[in-house]
Amino acid sequence: MWSRKYILKQALVSPDKGKRSGYFISTAGSKDYNKVFEGAIYVVKAIFSTLDIKYTDELFFKDMEHKGDILKHPDALRMAFEAGSSVKVT
Question: What mean pLDDT comes out for the span 33-52?
């Protein structure tokens, strides 16, 4: 995709599809919130840039080491739904 866009100068998405926005949602087993997502953020931003997707925002949940750990975050599903609902195509 990178080569198609930057070397071949071809559009990845039809211009009539409008501008796209993306939201990065992720979990991690680590409790060190300040560092655990840093590398992934850079990668996702680079992918979004290549795909002409505006990086809208992010939603992270740490300490997800075991099955069912998401239950420690009772608002997670609502937050993810709201994040998805907030992403608009313009």
Answer: 88
